[in-house]
């Protein structure tokens, strides 16, 4: 649809999130915050200023009681195949160039112009409004996997990329192939912690990985597919109203998730 | 040559021009940019070897079997323990942020004694322990003078605390914080059985949860979630149905096949109406009181069901059809916020398992035999007093203890009519708080003895409420030394005991746990390295509890009042724990915004109460009141208002103090007919716009 | 008139030239010296002596089981040999008495310091000789002076990004941002 | 007391009055400066920007002043390249206005980025695919061109001009001004277009995104046209404002009307294509994203009235007014049309900046609203005050208006 081409990779990390299994407990958000060293915020209820690389949205079928239903939708970065954020960055602080297809974000390069935030329709990118100041002592519990970012730069979910690097090192150490990791050898913190296993993670291109088939399931859909950004995060729900909330249908009135694979 | 103005200007211009041909500016710009990547006030991340150490993370009520990830020996994250049946690799949201809690600003850093209203002074452990021994010595042997409140449901620490009290001549002074284990065990007794009930969710093909928030805050939530996950493979057909009947469309019901909005005042009526419909659809059982039960249930007609619940009778019909079609249905009865429901609500729900012949079956309800004790002198868990009744007696002067030991509990915050409870605590001359955090109770205590964080201590968990089989977990410290100047409360009590001349047979909690493991028949080392011991659950000839149910009260209609449904969300914290720093993000801005907590209600209820979205309101119940803002939420049952528990702290840290209001304040306690239990699950409140 | 103006211009250029030259001297000679602070290692560690005992790099700088690189060894490793003084070098005595016995880790200065935002896998570079990137320490008896940039905090001797990029480019390895940053 | 510094043969107000005026403006400037220091010290957390509105008043302000400053390059282009000699009467003013607008915009940009220390990364680590890179380079280069155009004007100040070297320098720069005007026109066309492209390429933002032909060359030229459709008339408005303020005649009405005609013609072309663009967007592009025209608007704050005001009231109406000679030749009508025109273009920039990112695209998301806070207003005000200061000094001491002497005899 858009003029940009989708860059292909031999390994394409992706997620399939089963919305019928997500209870919205928040463990993924907590694990994400821990893994990525996000400082606790004095007023975390101000969602306009919080940093939540992984954010659990609440979806409603908008029906009155007793027919009301809700669903929870965890939203990491979609790691779009055709990202809106990458080409706009004036200083190459973000790219999608590495085998695996993860959209990077490099804090020491970022100048904080926020053009990428304006570009991302998923609100997956966050600006560091303040320096990451932890309560005294809590910096000892920082994760070694993500550098602490100064204020004034943009950051986002990167599928816990350091875990990818560590998984490759482990494969090398054990004599395996770092370019073809086994299913489960590399897991982002959210997928690892999820108590209901709602998040399945793996290589979308590798038939030995569960996500390969799951992403093709009849109930699979992606968010805002019509915009042509080709997210690498898929959602699954047996509930039609949930699937319908994955994209805009007001113009056509079509129900369900119509596929626009290209 | 003198330097005139013009010459000076030229010199400067020359200098500037020359500088352009040196690295000063360019290197300066580059180094400044690099400096901006590594500002001194931005923390550095730790380096070192990353390891994962098994631990028992008793931060959530049932405790998670986790692996603590450490870097250079210091914990930074927790992941599930795939080898442990209680975790199967999952972690609850609280335990996922456990490492950060080690450094919570609310942690008590050293022993402290009170030196004035709200003022404390750090003291040495030897002085603190001497103070404790001195107080206990002066009241030793005087029955009624020493009491203890424990907020730990599963630890063998309870045996030590209660055995110590017995030794001091105060066997009846042992109280526990409210929880379902207590009322459910009473309920089993009313049904002619014995033991703690268990629920085999993993084996059931239909799980009807009446109140019990089993996939978030009720029971062994991670094990429950894993059982749910196993029956709901992504991309394939589900092998079990989950149905939730409760006051709020909560986390559990968001993934259920069916949600039935039942006001908290109509729980028993719902269960009995379902029993009636099942009997009418042909359900029979061999229980001796089936006849009485049938007659009793017959009163709960579909019309009565509609009136009590506000639901349509078709919903009941649909439910019966689902249950009839299921091979292994299971009913879990519990309060939607894990406490305050009477034994009768439990009996009404559990009787459905008896009616359906599901007791002792795979995927059914089980009864767990009492676990062997490590200390013979310890009180049976079921025999303990409930802390709420005890403090109510203290308030009225019926009980007048001089020394109160508070172990892992926060009665000043987490008991119904919390303000009155906090006041009652004031009637006790000497209060000792064994607490990891500076909670509301600690701020009222005369002596604070900091307890270790779960990663810093030995601890165990016997039969967390809800497990289908007898289950025992134990853990040892996951780090070399504690972050703060703490001592294990059990070690402190054991030492105090020996100074008082009471040898309980152990010197440390670790020894107690090892003895417990031996008594249970488990291997401590296996447990401490992340394993679990499980025994067999049993059935038992349970009756339908008809005699007890006959006394079930009929909900009274009160036009002005609406039912209050307190909601627990594990991520927001527990009775013992204010929202941990790593969980703050999970609170929605429709639950808490700034300092305002929201009260949730459906549009019809809002209309009835004359309030609209965003209105500030005052809710009054008993002698307490809380303030909140209205959020219209169609997921709340008719004539019910829902509010999150765990907010409105007056202690803790900058993240939680003064945020929202404490719903415990407006829970009203009443006596349950025929059981002598205190109940508050059916509290009603009045709502007024302010 | 024309000539006079020119002449005046000549004489007037002198201050400019002086300023220009002064700036050049300051910028090329003084500045590089001023911007770095000089530090010496807390213990005079001799790689040479260790190499002469038959140790190679991997004897002390090991990989862990998960493929991560242990880097500079900790007391645990050093104490395998130096729990007590075994030689006659005074530096060893300093190490044993001040660190090995007290359990305090040596705050070694790391010439190849990389900031937190860099992730480097020694495992991925295992096929290269250590000396492709590190100086050949085997012959080094006294650790070199450590130059630390006063503004950025970087070691002067460390590898900057362009070197990594050049080698990656020459060897056809990806230069995508995430390959080296975290 | 500073009479000796005045341009030849003109009258200026007393120094005391001037000092008072400057003090008044400086107060605004200093308040903005304070806000700027706060922003540099604490970061842009002190502004009203948030997770949903990464762009706000500052970017709107930047885009608007760059459009309004377009009078400089376009008038220069007409004067030096197309040799419309009459424009010499106002060309100096367009240069000063342009300089103020561009230098001000660059200053705002350094505040707007989260890491000002790294501002130079834009030049050193450019991403050639980013429209913003193009904008950064062109604005910087064009700002330098404006400096080059402004310098001879400064050198024409009476005292400076008496120094032979400076006199010759100014003279030589003047001679070659056509070259700079050409470079300026080239650079400006690029970045005015790129500014539109900045939004036009946002694939994830249907309000701004344009596909294929509609992004290049369409959107690029729409933005160029919209800028030249308002820049010249903005200069006229500035000139007229100065005349009212000083009570002196500065530029003859014939020149002003000519500028009005130029702007009007460009605006008419622009608005014609803008209408086509909007129509194609609403009927072709939007439905392809599953969204409707109605979904692009919300309540009053983001209501449809904004778009109608932009295109009809402040687009079509002033276009007609400016191209109709009888209306254009009526001073009141000319100025009214000019004001409407400038409002329309500013509104356009606002909508592309704020409305674009306000629209919730995820169907389960909700509209959020944005209001700039004091820090953003104060710093934007600082730039305006800076403009007033530069303009006041230039007017008082530099021979900006060649006709002034004759017209005020």
Termini separation of chain D = 23 Å
Give the CATH level 1 class of chain D: Mainly Alpha
In DSSP terms (H or I, runs of 4 or more residues), the helix count of chain D works out at: 17
What fold name stands as the CATH topology of chain D? Answer: Formate dehydrogenase/DMSO reductase fold
Order of SSEs of chain D: HHHHHHHHHHHHHHHHH
Biggest interface, chains and residues, is: A-B, 76 and 85 residues
In total, the number of strands of chain C is 2
The CATH architecture term of chain D is Up-down Bundle
Structural class of chain C: mainly alpha
Work out the helicity level of chain C. 25-40%
How much of the sequence of chain D is in beta strands? under 5%
Number of helices of chain C: 6
- What would the average pLDDT of chain C be, to the nearest integer? 89
Low-confidence blocks of residues of chain D: none
Strand order of the largest sheet of chain C: 1-2
Shape of chain D: globular
How many individual β-strands of chain D? 0
Summarize the SSE layout with pairings:
The complex is a heterotetramer of chains A (262), B (690), C (182) and D (409).
Chain B lengths: L4 H16 L3 H12 L14 E8 L6 E8 L2 E7 L12 H4 L1 H4 L10 E5 L2 E4 L2 H15 L6 E5 L6 H11 L6 E3 L3 H11 L5 E4 L6 E5 L10 H11 L9 E6 L4 H4 L3 E4 L5 H14 L9 H9 L3 H8 L3 H13 L3 E5 L9 H13 L9 E4 L16 E2 H10 L6 E5 L10 H8 L4 E5 L5 H5 L2 E2 L10 E4 L8 E5 L13 H11 L9 H12 L3 H5 L4 E2 L11 H4 L12 E6 L24 E2 L2 E6 L1 H7 L6 E6 L2 E9 L7 E5 L25 E2 L6 E2 L4 E6 L1
Parallel strand pairs in B: 6-7, 6-15, 7-14, 9-10, 9-12, 10-11, 15-16, 16-17, 21-26, 23-25
Antiparallel strand pairs in B: 1-2, 2-3, 4-5, 4-17, 8-13, 18-19, 19-20, 21-29, 22-23, 23-26, 24-25, 24-29, 27-28
Helix pairs in contact in B: 5-18, 6-18, 7-14, 10-11, 10-12, 10-13, 10-14, 15-16
Chain C lengths: L1 H33 L1 E4 L7 H6 L4 H4 L14 H8 L7 H11 L45 E4 L11 H10 L12
Antiparallel strand pairs in C: 1-2
Chain D lengths: L14 H28 L14 H12 L2 H11 L6 H25 L8 H4 L6 H25 L2 H4 L2 H12 L1 H24 L14 H14 L2 H16 L6 H36 L15 H20 L1 H4 L2 H28 L15 H24 L6 H4 L2
Helix pairs in contact in D: 1-16, 2-4, 2-15, 3-4, 3-9, 3-11, 4-6, 4-11, 4-16, 6-8, 6-9, 9-10, 10-12, 11-12, 11-15, 12-13, 12-15, 13-15
